[in-house]
Design goal:
Strand order of the largest sheet: 3-2-1-4-5-6-10
Strand content: 15-25%
Structural class: alpha/beta
Number of strands: 11
CATH class of the domain at 2-145 and 175-202 and 262-278: Alpha Beta
Length: 293
């Protein structure tokens, strides 16, 4: 039995589909089972509740041998630490007494970065907590996600512009969520690995936002341009959509660390272990962005 958390999320839903395709027995924990497609719900066991709470997580772990762990990282949490570390506390406390042998979690690049990095710092602390339980653990340390561009679908479609608090000529690793899900599902289905380790998922090559705009222009057949936001404008945008003050601070700290070289420094240090996932930004635009537009 494999337990999958956040099964209706953008990564979790893809992991769920891929694991089901391998013929595994699957259980999920989620607050609202009606968000699952009927055809999926008929093939799995559903535990209703939050995977932050001890009773649902105990039920979810009962008889499970592997877990896909992903806190939702709610933007309304008091802080990134609350949304990741404290959210995972009940799971970590329950693991040692369970029969779970393998856990796969979604994490971020940044191990060894010696400055506050908001969500990244909290995610890495969560990894350490899980790894300390004695379970076999793989942290999938993701670069920035190509799919985050979809959050600006309206402005791309209507004004031909997308934004980020990042210099347009700064090259950073980016990875597609579909590739992350492929790696996670393979690890959950195979389980021929042991120990605690990180797997940096960095995409096929680093990209600048300016280069992304050029590719989007070619794929969409309309001019697309990138504009750098100031840190103040970025924080104001987050606050305007209901993000808590603590999470605004932590999102901003993460983006500042990326601009200062956190992702590229980490990727260089682990270059021999990088998982250069296959999907290019052009392919992602053709498969995901263009149909959405």
């Amino acid at each position: 039995m494999i337990l999958i958390t956040t099964p209706t999320g953008d990564i979790g839903s893809r992991v769920l589909k891929r694991v089901l395709d391998t013929g595994q027995n699957v259980r999920v924990v989620l607050r609202d089972p009606t968000k699952l497609p009927d055809e999926v719900r008929q093939r799995i066991e559903v535990i209703e509740g939050s995977h932050a709470d001890r009773t649902p997580i105990d039920r979810g772990l009962d008889g499970a041998s592997a877990v896909f762990w992903l806190p939702p990282g709610s933007p309304t949490a008091a802080s990134a630490r609350e949304g990741y570390v404290e959210f995972s506390r009940a799971f970590v406390e329950a693991l040692p007494a369970s029969g779970v042998s393998h856990v796969v979690g979604i994490s971020a690049l940044g191990r060894g970065w010696h400055h506050p990095a908001g969500l990244v710092t909290a995610t890495l602390e969560t990894d350490d907590m899980i790894g300390a339980t004695g379970v076999n653990y793989r942290a999938l340390c993701c670069a920035s996600l190509m799919d985050n561009v979809l959050r600006q679908l309206g402005t791309i479609r209507d004004s031909g512009t997308f934004y980020a608090p990042t210099p347009g000529d700064l090259a950073l690793p980016v990875v597609a969520k579909s590739d992350v899900a492929d790696v996670a599902a393979g690890l959950l289905a195979g389980r021929d690995w042991s120990g605690v380790d990180e797997m940096p998922l960095c995409g096929p090559g680093d990209m600048t936002h300016d280069a992304m705009a050029e590719i989007m222009t070619e794929v969409l057949g309309k001019p697309i341009r990138f504009e750098q936001m100031s840190a103040d404008a970025f924080e104001g945008m987050l606050a305007a959509i209901g993000t808590s003050p603590g999470m605004v601070r932590d999102y901003s700290a993460m983006m500042r660390a990326k601009n200062e070289g956190m992702d590229t420094t980490y990727a260089t240090e682990v270059s021999q272990r990088q998982w250069r996932t296959p999907t290019t930004f052009r392919q992602w635009c053709e498969r995901e962005l263009k149909p959405a537009i």
